[in-house]
């Protein structure tokens, strides 16, 4: 049997097109992950099979085909999970290079290759060379048989003789139907918790220190997810909430979701602002910075507070 025809254990489906985007599906007995290398390696499916729970969230417009008139990050944003590099915030010029809003990584097509493909374990490596800065990124996603989740390992490499700075992180969101009122979020600063209010409540935004490098979400029925990461590289957690209580653009009160995003820096207008604040990732000439992130499903019932 060809590896890409295997229908048991860990397996990979490739040479797929979904809504006009190249797609890769990685799965095992417990979990299915769909990646769009043709759209910034967006993660658009985080499906726990035993409970039919998809942790990925979509905006009211969802995933739409590429259109020339709508090429920026916000116009193409479908929800889900994006890789953000090499800048945060708005469009600007840095050292003579055009920096699109939220960086080019989420707007680019990545190359990929399958490094391991067996029923016990699979690994796919995605690669991108940036145009705006002399940086190359390699992202390895690994899944093991029976485990509900995946491990993501990354290497950011400077391919020039100059010191290069960048902002870097993961734009991760959760929403309906997974999220419901009463879902409890354990935040990385000590024993802090946030409980989701009723739909129609006011949302908010904050930036939290994330030295612990871990957060978890759990619904009242016990189903949840945990994200853990290298906090030395991504020491900030951006925590934004949209509970449908604001009728302003771009979402017009249509959503019930949270963003729990791990980044190298707090929000900044330009990359130069992050460099001046000392928060941007520094990559030495021909050097590399490594980081990892783990996503896993939580199923056990929550303990009494």
Question: What's this model, at a glance?
Answer:
With 305 residues, the chain is mainly β. It has a single domain, classed as Beta-galactosidase, Chain A, domain 5, CATH 2.70.98.
Q: Could you give the order of strands across the largest sheet?
A: 9-10-11-12-23-19-18-15-16
The CATH architecture would be Distorted Sandwich
Note the quaternary state here: single chain
Treating each run of at least 4 consecutive H or I residues as one helix, how many helices? Answer: 2
Helices and strands: which structural class?
Answer: mainly beta
Count all strands and give the number. Answer: 23
* Largest sheet data: 9 strands, antiparallel
The tally of domains stands at 1
Descriptive labels:
single chain, 305 residues, mainly beta, Beta-galactosidase, Chain A, domain 5, nine-stranded antiparallel beta sheet, five-stranded antiparallel beta sheet, 2 helices, globular
Descriptive report:
With 305 residues, the chain is mostly beta strands. The protein has a single domain, classed as Distorted Sandwich (Beta-galactosidase, Chain A, domain 5). The chain has helices at residues 73-76, 271-277; strands at 11-18, 21-27, 31-36, 42-48, 53-54, 81-84, 92-94, 97-99, 111-117, 121-129, 135-144, 149-158, 164-166, 169-175, 184-186, 193-195, 204-209, 214-218, 224-229, 236-242, 257-263, 281-283, 288-298. The strands form five sheets. It has a nine-stranded antiparallel sheet, with no helix packed on it. Strands 1-2-3-4-5 form a five-stranded antiparallel sheet, with no helix packed on it. Strands 6-14-21-20-17 form a five-stranded antiparallel sheet, with no helix packed on it. The radius of gyration is 19 Å and the shape is globular. The relative contact order is 0.17. The model has no long low-confidence stretch (mean pLDDT 93).
């Amino acid at each position: 049997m060809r590896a890409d025809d295997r229908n048991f254990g860990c397996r990979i489906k490739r040479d797929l097109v979904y809504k006009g985007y190249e797609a890769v599906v990685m799965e095992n007995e417990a979990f299915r992950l769909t990646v769009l290398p043709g759209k910034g390696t967006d993660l658009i499916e985080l499906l726990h099979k035993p409970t039919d729970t998809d942790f990925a969230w979509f905006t009211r417009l969802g995933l739409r085909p590429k259109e020339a008139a709508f090429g920026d990050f916000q116009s193409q944003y479908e929800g889900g999970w994006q890789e953000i590099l090499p800048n945060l915030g708005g469009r600007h010029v840095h050292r003579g290079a055009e920096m699109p809003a939220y960086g080019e990584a989420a707007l680019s097509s990545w190359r990929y290759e399958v490094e391991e493909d067996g029923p016990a374990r699979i690994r796919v490596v995605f690669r991108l060379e940036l145009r705006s800065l002399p940086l190359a990124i390699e992202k390895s996603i690994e899944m093991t048989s029976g485990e509900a989740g995946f491990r993501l390992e990354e290497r950011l490499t400077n391919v020039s003789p100059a010191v290069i700075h960048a902002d870097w992180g993961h734009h991760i969101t959760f929403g309906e139907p997974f999220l419901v009122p009463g879902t409890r979020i354990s935040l990385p600063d000590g024993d802090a918790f946030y409980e989701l209010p009723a739909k129609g409540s006011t949302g908010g935004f904050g930036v939290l220190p994330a030295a612990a490098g871990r957060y978890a979400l759990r619904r009242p029925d016990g189903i949840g997810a945990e994200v853990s990461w290298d906090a030395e590289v991504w020491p900030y957690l951006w925590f934004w909430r949209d509970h449908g209580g604001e009728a302003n653009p771009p979402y017009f009160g249509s959503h019930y979701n949270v963003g729990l995003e791990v980044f190298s820096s707090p929000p900044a207008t330009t990359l130069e602002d992050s460099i001046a604040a000392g928060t941007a990732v520094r990559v030495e000439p021909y050097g590399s910075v490594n980081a990892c992130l783990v996503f896993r499903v939580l199923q056990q019932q929550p303990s009494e507070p």
